[in-house]
């Protein structure tokens, strides 16, 4: 008997080890869910820690994943602030009462597009950067095929681009949904769908991630990739032979947003982060991190590489309407039925 | 308490709807070699496994040396078992195999190995301790299995068809060895086999099983000479079973009528009337047709086997199988003979 | 182990749980300073203060069970009933009274308005373990489980853990399939299950894609068949082919095992993408037009087979080696020629392993997420569709749950088929009788065809890994910019020497967490898996089928579903695990468990049961038998389970992407982030580091635990004496 006991005890201990909710919890006095690229998240966190001395724990996830997580954790929130990521999930979280209303004293310093978005969301979210939609093409491949450089949305529907356009699937990507909503606002719903059906014949793949087409265009996997312009800029700066196009008809944009999670455990620190993230110093970090969106604070420096809104014909994007769940579901279902199901 | 090594009280073991052991009750004496015998599927192996604790009974009570072990796990019963496949641990040396039981029982490795060495020597395996089982012959593996069981000095030692993987010559030697050891050490042994010769050779007590029940229990001589029914008679060696009539029986002799003839033969008392009568092949003497009383017949086939001769004789009562010593007179095929019975067994059913 | 001993141990655990250990979970270890008050208060202190008075019945039951145990005269039924009641009370009160006070209004008349209570902690866990021990000892005393309390405890304990960590989360999320707008809607369930997106057969007649179920099935069947075939070729060559290059052989086949899944996809794009190295070469030299064939079924299939074939190899090699040569010799002596021996003896004996391989390949393909994500193109499979149904722009948990149900159905279909194919034959080849034959060499034709499959595949694998190895050290392999650089490695793994070592690279945190979590979960997985396998294969007890089903269940569930279900199930008291490293460990243990169990069962099927029985009759209890007989014979299975669970813990993505937290981020999630950001080079560089780490660990495990010695002639280590 004596020799059996240690084994049994060891097993018991192992069992307990598995069962036990350990004492290890996030100790940071602020937990940030970050939905932009890692190398932008990190200096942001470091900058805030330097500025305030508050310790920050940060998780990086795409905005869709973060929304899922925030939703699942709603009854016992783990995060305090959700920073970055395209605006629609933030709007949706606001509609679902997952985020907290907060009016930052810095609201007055922001660009009008950011203020308008905050108003539309009942101040449950706020814009921190904006990026225009467009596309990039691989110049090397284009020259090799002797195709004229595209300049407009309509160019992409031409037969010479057959099988050469890549765009994300609006079901999975906020970027692609922004394109869908942009085209509908730009052309009107019926002509937009006629255009999309024509474009569909030229699309070689609907990727799942919004930024993937920019990468594909950079490596030549596709000729044209429809993305936010700043994603394409990142590729170009890394040395890819891509040219960036802001379509001549005009285009829509996303507003990268920030929200405070309802029931945040560190509400006070969350508000400090919120205010700080809207300051010009904080927004200047973006460019150092190879992110070339437009910052929302009017006083923030605009990186020279950033595609400026002045050079882009922007439409008056109605975030409240096209970000609503009902409208989004309707558009996506129509797209699925009339565009995606079509033959290529 | 009782003097029984093993006692079964109304033990039943059911696998689903099949009752492998059905309401079994018996006592097995201490210090004896008891053989469970029967055709495959008769429940003898299940009975052995119930003793070992490898199966737990569905109903009933099992005692070993007076203690209730019905719900006790195999490891706590202080029995040992030799398996048909030997079940030697392939990753351990012979010495490790033999000392295994001692070591898991809490003995120190050195003393355990000392005892194991001694046991190996007893069984004539000295010098093989460092080998792996795979490097031994079949007979050696068998003896290692026995050594491994014996070294534990178990209350009861169980054998599950231990000889079935050996050749005939080896089988005979090993069974004598087992019997010798058992007698020398005064072990209580339960032995399972389907080979009646083996059973007769080694047993103090035989238990013949059929369909999960005991068909008959007794000493080898009792079972051979006085089987209770046709099943036992046939299973305990060859028997000619004749339908006939007992006319009278008295004082160890009887008068019977079979196949139109009336014979006198040694026989235990049996009420007069129709009966099944078993006659062992060697209990029939063949004499020439002129010699008076006897069941007439014709030799259909004759074979010379060295020590014995075998005949098939067609009679009115049916075909008789006869074995005579080689020294007895030989008969040609086709010869007319009279069959005389030197012992007749009236069966109870 | 005796029932009484176990009962007393359980009693001790229960006492410790009530008197000493903090009853509730603590925010951090510093709270322990306040013991025995405040956050760290044990249940006894809470009860003394008049709080948690609804726990008095549980304490009373513990005392009731203690009486017979201390006196040494057990009443099994009573003790078991007490244990079960304690279990029920602890869980129900935790559910009923949560973070916001009473959660079940129906209980208000009984409980009043109790104060909110946080999750269970060490104390709660000890009491729960004690309850399991009481149940087990009571049942064992009543003669269940062969009267062995150790086995009883294993069964009760593992059943409890499986219920808690497999069944409950699954139930939580799958109930979502039948819920629409917060109400139960069977109609919605039916509609979701029969959805066009799942079952459409459009691809047969038009250019459109087929339903996602058909896609998944097609891919899984192809992947299972191809990987098994390639694995078999390797296994036959390695075990019987007389191949000299064993070490290289092993290394080459281990390599794909230890690879984060999507890195193979990346390498395949680099090779076969439209501007890939091979594609470009083909165009330049042969004028073969460049196409995008790699995106879709062919690419995903290739990536999955690259990952799965080595696993098949490991499984099948073990099986080939375990076939007793005397069986083949027997056939040969009966006059059968080489090939006939192979066909009539070797091949049928391989069937269980082959079935296991096919099943594993099939199920792995079903639950693969990384490769379809990167290479799928327009070719959608269930796992990605589920992921995007949850995490995509349209959030539809109901649709995701319905798709998950379909995925489950596919997996169980595969299990059923396997059972059907194997039937009830016996395949024991390691018996107590030593087997001293010499393995038969492969028939010549077969050896040549095995070589024809294996060697080119090896070359292909080498190329893919070459790309991975190089990719981390050049500027941008995707664009063919092959200038050497340390930049990517430095970004991730910079180390600074300034008063002590400082890990400045951005990848260090996630690497350390990953290693820690994998190192904790691998032995737990292997241990629990092998124990379960032994229980399932060797012990007969009521509910064995149900236990096996639960143990296998988690394998069939796509990782994404597991991740979300864990968040849903363990974010609130009584069991609150989100945000801890523990939830990652638990997730890995129960996700990888089926592999340990399968491997263990397959290995046990090759070991004669009489070996266990012999040990038992010689006084070896369940524990001794396990330790001295079964486990040594199961070494190959243990090595496989350890290595597999470690590697899978390091390479899993889909399940943990929802479970990582700020403090506990994992390497794969970090890499996915890099891939999303288009930083292929950094991703590949990190993967290279991961591969090296895993390689070292896997080889280390094999070195330490070693390979089984079964005493065949080719290994006469201890002969000669």
UniProtKB/TrEMBL annotation, chain A:
This is ABC transporter substrate-binding protein. Residues 1-26 form the signal peptide. One of its GO terms (cellular component) is outer membrane-bounded periplasmic space. Pfam families: SBP_bac_6. PANTHER family: ABC TRANSPORTER SUBSTRATE-BINDING PROTEIN, THIAMINE-BINDING PERIPLASMIC PROTEIN-RELATED. CDD domains: PBP2_Fbp_like_1 (cd13544). GO terms for molecular function: thiamine binding; thiamine pyrophosphate binding. GO terms for biological process: thiamine transport. Keywords: Signal. InterPro entries: Ferric-bd (IPR026045). It comes from the Bacteria.
Automatic annotation (TrEMBL), chain B:
Keywords: ATP-binding, Nucleotide-binding, Transport. The keyword ATP-binding applies. PANTHER family: SPERMIDINE/PUTRESCINE IMPORT ATP-BINDING PROTEIN POTA, SPERMIDINE_PUTRESCINE IMPORT ATP-BINDING PROTEIN POTA. Pfam families: ABC_tran, TOBE_2. Residues 6-236 form the ABC transporter domain. One of its GO terms (biological process) is quaternary ammonium group transport. It comes from Neoroseomonas soli. SUPFAM superfamilies: MOP-like, P-loop containing nucleoside triphosphate hydrolases. One of its GO terms (cellular component) is ATP-binding cassette (ABC) transporter complex. GO terms for molecular function: ATP binding; ATP hydrolysis activity; transmembrane transporter activity. This is ABC transporter ATP-binding protein. InterPro entries: AAA+_ATPase (IPR003593), ABC_SmlMolc_Importer (IPR050093), ABC_transporter-like_ATP-bd (IPR003439), ABC_transporter-like_CS (IPR017871), Mo/tungstate-bd_C_term_dom (IPR008995), P-loop_NTPase (IPR027417), Transp-assoc_OB_typ2 (IPR013611). The keyword Transcription does not apply.
Automatic annotation (TrEMBL), chain C:
Residues 213-418, 511-699 form the ABC transmembrane type-1 domain. It is a multi-pass membrane protein. Its main location: membrane. Signal peptide: none annotated. SUPFAM superfamilies: MetI-like. Belongs to the binding-protein-dependent transport system permease family. This is Iron ABC transporter permease. One of its GO terms (biological process) is transmembrane transport. Keywords: Cell membrane, Membrane, Transmembrane, Transmembrane helix, Transport. It is found in: Cell membrane. The chain crosses the membrane at residues 53-70, 77-99, 119-139, 151-179, 217-239, 251-273, 293-319, 340-363, 400-423, 452-474, 517-537, 549-569, 575-593, 637-660, 680-701. One of its GO terms (cellular component) is plasma membrane.
């Amino acid at each position: 008997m004596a020799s059996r006991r240690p084994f049994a005890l060891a097993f018991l201990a192992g069992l307990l080890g598995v069962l036990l909710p350990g004492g290890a919890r996030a100790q940071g006095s602020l937990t940030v869910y970050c939905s932009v690229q890692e190398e932008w998240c990190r200096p942001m966190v470091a900058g805030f820690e330097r500025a305030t001395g508050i310790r920050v724990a940060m998780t990086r996830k795409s905005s869709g994943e973060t929304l899922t997580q925030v939703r699942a954790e709603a009854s016992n929130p783990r995060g305090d602030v959700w920073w970055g990521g395209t605006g629609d999930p933030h709007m949706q979280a606001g509609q679902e009462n997952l985020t907290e209303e907060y009016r930052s004293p810095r609201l007055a310093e922001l660009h009008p597009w950011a203020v308008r978005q905050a108003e539309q969301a009942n101040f449950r979210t706020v814009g921190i950067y904006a990026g225009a939609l467009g596309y990039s093409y691989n110049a090397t491949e284009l020259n090799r095929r002797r195709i004229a450089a595209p300049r407009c949305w309509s160019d992409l529907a031409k037969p010479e681009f057959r099988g050469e356009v890549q765009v994300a699937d609006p079901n999975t990507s906020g970027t692609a949904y922004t394109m869908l909503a942009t085209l509908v606002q730009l052309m009107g719903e019926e002509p937009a769908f006629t255009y999309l059906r024509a474009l569909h014949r030229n699309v070689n793949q609907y990727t799942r991630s919004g930024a993937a087409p920019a990468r594909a265009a950079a490596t030549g996997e596709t000729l044209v990739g429809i993305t936010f312009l700043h994603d394409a800029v990142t590729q170009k700066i890394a040395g890819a032979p891509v040219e960036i196009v802001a379509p001549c008809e005009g285009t829509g944009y996303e507003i990268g947003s920030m929200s405070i999670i309802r029931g945040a455990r560190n509400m006070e620190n969350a508000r400090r982060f919120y205010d700080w993230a809207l300051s010009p110093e904080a927004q200047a970090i973006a460019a150092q991190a190879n992110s070339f969106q437009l910052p929302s604070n009017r006083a923030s420096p605009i990186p020279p590489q950033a595609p400026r809104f002045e050079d882009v014909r922007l439409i008056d994007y109605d975030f409240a309407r096209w970000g609503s769940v009902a409208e989004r579901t309707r558009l996506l279902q129509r797209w699925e039925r009339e565009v995606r199901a079509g033959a290529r | 308490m009782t003097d029984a090594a093993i006692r079964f009280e109304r033990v039943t073991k059911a696998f689903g709807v099949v009752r492998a052991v059905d309401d079994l009750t018996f006592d097995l004496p201490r210090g004896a070699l008891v053989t469970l015998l029967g055709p495959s599927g008769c429940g003898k192996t299940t009975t052995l496994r119930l003793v070992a604790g490898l199966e737990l009974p569905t109903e009933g009570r099992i005692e070993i040396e007076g203690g209730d072990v019905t719900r006790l796990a195999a490891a706590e019963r202080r029995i040992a078992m030799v398996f048909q496949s030997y079940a030697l641990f392939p990753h351990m040396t012979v010495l490790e195999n033999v000392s295994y039981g001692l070591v898991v029982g809490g003995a120190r490795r050195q003393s355990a190995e000392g005892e194991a060495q001694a046991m190996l020597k007893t069984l004539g395996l000295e010098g093989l301790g460092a080998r792996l089982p795979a490097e031994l012959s079949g007979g050696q593996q068998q003896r290692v299995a026995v050594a491994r069981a014996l070294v534990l000095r178990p209350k009861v030692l169980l054998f599950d068809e231990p000889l079935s993987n050996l050749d005939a010559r080896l089988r005979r030697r090993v069974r004598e060895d087992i019997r010798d050891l058992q007698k020398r050490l005064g072990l209580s042994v339960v032995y399972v086999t389907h080979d009646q010769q083996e059973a007769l050779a080694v047993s103090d007590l035989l238990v013949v099983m059929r369909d999960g029940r005991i068909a008959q229990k007794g000493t080898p001589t009792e079972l051979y000479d006085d089987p209770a029914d046709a099943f036992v008679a046939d299973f305990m060696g060859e028997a000619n079973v004749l339908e006939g009539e007992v006319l009278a029986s008295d004082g160890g002799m009887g008068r019977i009528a079979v196949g139109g003839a009336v014979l006198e033969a040694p026989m235990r008392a049996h009420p007069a009337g129709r009966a099944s009568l078993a006659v062992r092949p060697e209990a029939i003497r063949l004499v020439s047709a002129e010699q008076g009383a006897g069941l007439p017949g014709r030799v259909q086939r004759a074979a010379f086997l060295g020590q014995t001769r075998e005949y098939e004789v067609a009679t009115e009562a049916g075909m008789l199988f006869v074995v005579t010593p080689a020294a007895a007179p030989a008969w040609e095929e086709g010869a007319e003979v009279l069959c005389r019975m030197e012992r007749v067994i009236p069966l109870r059913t | 182990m005796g029932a009484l001993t176990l009962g007393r141990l359980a009693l001790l655990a229960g006492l410790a749980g009530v008197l000493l250990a903090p009853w509730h979970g603590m925010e951090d270890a510093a709270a322990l300073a306040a013991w025995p008050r405040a956050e760290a208060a044990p249940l006894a202190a809470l009860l003394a203060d008049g709080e948690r008075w609804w726990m008095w019945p549980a304490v009373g039951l513990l005392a009731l069970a203690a009486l017979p145990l201390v006196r040494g005269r057990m009443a099994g039924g009573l003790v078991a009933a007490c244990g079960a009641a304690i279990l029920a009370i602890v869980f129900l009160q935790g559910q009923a009274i949560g973070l916001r006070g009473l959660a079940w209004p129906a209980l208000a008349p009984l409980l009043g308005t109790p104060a909110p209570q946080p999750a269970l902690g060490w104390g709660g866990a000890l009491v729960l373990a004690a309850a399991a021990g009481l149940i087990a000892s009571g049942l064992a005393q009543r003669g269940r489980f062969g009267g062995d309390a150790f086995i009883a405890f294993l069964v009760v304990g593992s059943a409890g853990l499986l219920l808690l960590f497999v069944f409950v989360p699954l139930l939580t999320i799958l109930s979502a399939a039948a819920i629409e707008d917060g109400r139960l809607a069977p109609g919605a369930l039916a509609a979701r299950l029969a959805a066009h997106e799942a079952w459409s057969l459009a691809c047969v007649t038009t250019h459109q894609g087929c339903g996602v179920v058909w896609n998944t099935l097609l891919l899984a069947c192809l992947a299972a068949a191809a990987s098994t075939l390639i694995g078999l070729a390797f296994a036959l060559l390695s075990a019987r082919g007389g191949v000299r290059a064993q070490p290289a052989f092993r290394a080459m086949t281990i390599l794909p095992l230890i690879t984060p899944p999507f890195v193979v996809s990346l390498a395949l794009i680099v090779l076969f993408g439209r501007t890939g190295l091979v594609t470009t070469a083909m165009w330049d030299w042969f004028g073969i037009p460049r196409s995008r064939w790699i995106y879709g079924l062919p690419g995903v299939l290739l990536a999955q087979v690259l990952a799965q074939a080595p696993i098949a190899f490991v499984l099948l090699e073990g099986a080939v080696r375990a076939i007793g040569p005397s069986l083949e010799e027997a056939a040969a002596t009966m006059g059968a020629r080489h090939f006939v021996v192979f066909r009539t003896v070797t091949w049928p004996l391989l069937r269980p392993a082959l079935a296991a391989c096919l099943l594993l390949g099939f199920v792995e393909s079903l639950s693969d997420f990384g490769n379809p994500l990167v290479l799928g193109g327009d070719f959608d499979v269930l796992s990605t569709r589920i992921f995007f149904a949850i995490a995509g722009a349209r959030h539809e948990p109901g649709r995701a749950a319905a798709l998950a149900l379909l995925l489950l159905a596919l997996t169980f279909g595969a299990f059923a088929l396997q059972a059907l194919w194997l039937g009830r034959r016996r395949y024991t080849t390691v018996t107590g009788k030593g087997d001293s034959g010499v393995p038969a060499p492969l028939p010549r034709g077969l050896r040549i065809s095995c070589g024809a499959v294996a060697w080119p595949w090896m070359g292909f694998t080498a190329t893919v890994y070459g790309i991975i190895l190089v990719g981390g050290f050049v500027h941008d392999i995707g664009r063919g910019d092959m200038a050497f650089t340390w930049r990517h490695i430095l970004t991730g793994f910079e180390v600074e020497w300034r008063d002590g070592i400082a890990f400045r690279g951005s990848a260090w945190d996630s690497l350390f967490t990953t290693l820690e979590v994998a190192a904790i979960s691998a032995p737990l997985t292997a241990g629990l898996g092998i124990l379960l396998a032994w229980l399932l294969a060797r012990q007969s007890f009521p509910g064995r089928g149900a236990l096996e089903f639960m143990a296998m269940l988690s394998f069939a569930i796509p990782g994404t579903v597991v991740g979300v279900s864990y968040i849903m199930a363990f974010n609130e008291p009584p069991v609150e695990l989100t945000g801890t490293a523990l939830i990652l460990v638990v997730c890995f243990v129960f996700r990888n468990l089926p592999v340990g169990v399968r491997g263990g069962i397959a290995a046990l099927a090759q070991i004669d049961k009489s070996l266990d029985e012999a040990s038992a009759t010689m006084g070896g209890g369940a524990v001794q038998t396990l330790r001295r007989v079964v486990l040594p014979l199961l070494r190959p299975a243990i090595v496989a389970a350890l290595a597999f669970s470690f590697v899978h813990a390091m390479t899993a993505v889909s399940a943990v992407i929802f479970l990582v937290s700020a403090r506990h981020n994992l390497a794969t999630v970090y890499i996915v982030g890099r891939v999303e950001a288009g930083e292929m080079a950094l991703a590949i560089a990190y993967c290279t580091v991961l591969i090296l780490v895993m390689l070292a660990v896997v080889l280390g495990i094999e070195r330490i635990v070693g390979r089984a010695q079964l005493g065949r002639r080719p290994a006469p280590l201890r002969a000669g004496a």
